[in-house]
Design brief:
It is an enzyme of class 3 (hydrolase). GO terms for molecular function: inorganic diphosphate phosphatase activity; phosphoglycolate phosphatase activity. It comes from Clostridium acetireducens DSM 10703. The protein has 217 residues and is α/β, with parallel strands linked by helices. Helix content is 49%, strand content 13%. It folds into two domains: 148 residues, Rossmann fold, CATH 3.40.50.1000; 63 residues, Putative phosphatase, domain 2 (DNA polymerase, domain 1, Orthogonal Bundle), CATH 1.10.150. The strands form two sheets. A six-stranded parallel β-sheet has the order 5-4-1-6-7-8, with helices on both faces. A two-stranded antiparallel ribbon has the order 2-3. Helix 1 packs antiparallel against helix 4, helix 3 crosses helix 4 and helix 7 crosses helix 8.
């Protein structure tokens, strides 16, 4: 029985894909003087920022993170958009008595900024950010932490995200997993990680939760 839904934030609940991509491009150009293909950037979605930067310049990863964050904070609100069906789905899920949470690799201040920008923080019982765990996506600890705080078992939860790192986080924790097809990550790439469900619109999560509850309760 599904008792809680855990959501990734960027690219899942709010459309910050353009802001993220532009911030990566700016950072790589400014610090390394190189251009990175968008497909290479999108495959990092869901990972902690420091881990990504460390792969490109281990000694100066912190500097790259700072460059990224400074630029991203400037353009975030201008580039951010809503996804159709998200707030309606959250409202329905909440009315059905499900617990809701965010599990994101975005640091807390920016995660809360994004949630507040679209007035959806009111639906969330918890927000798990990198500050809350030692291990991060794609490890299962963030989802496990969310389940612990919500007082549910992992198998009673559904992890919804737009990247392989979200799917792996949910699977590694023992949660059901769900991929949004409006992901900026190449769909065939994420499908290799075999999410339990794939949806076109967030409203489909309502049906998944109700049907799963009927099936296994």
């Amino acid at each position: 029985m599904i008792k809680a839904v855990l959501f990734d934030l960027d690219g899942t609940l709010i459309n910050t894909n353009s802001a993220v991509i532009e911030s990566f491009k700016y950072t790589f150009k400014k610090h390394l003087g190189i251009k990175i293909p968008e497909e290479e950037i999108t495959k990092t979605f869901g990972e902690p920022l420091y881990d990504v930067m460390e792969r490109y310049d281990k000694e100066n990863a912190e500097l790259m993170v700072n460059i990224y964050r400074e630029y991203n904070e400037k353009i975030h609100d201008e580039f951010a958009k809503s996804f159709n069906g998200v707030e309606d789905a959250l409202n329905i899920l909440k009315s059905k008595g499900l617990k809701l949470g965010v599990v994101t690799s975005k640091r807390r201040d920016m995660a809360e900024r994004g949630l507040n920008l679209f007035n959806i923080s009111k639906y969330m019982d918890i927000v798990i950010t990198p500050e809350n765990t030692k291990m991060h996506k794609p490890k299962g600890e963030p989802a496990l932490k969310a389940c612990e705080l919500l007082n549910i078992c992992p198998e009673e939860s559904l992890m919804v995200g737009d990247s392989q790192n979200d799917i792996l986080c949910g699977k590694n924790a023992g949660c059901y997993t769900c991929l949004v097809k409006y992901t900026a990550v190449p769909l065939e790439h994420v499908m290799k990680y075999k999410p339990d469900y794939v949806i076109e619109n967030m409203l489909e999560v309502v049906d998944i939760c109700l049907n799963t509850s009927e099936k296994i309760s």
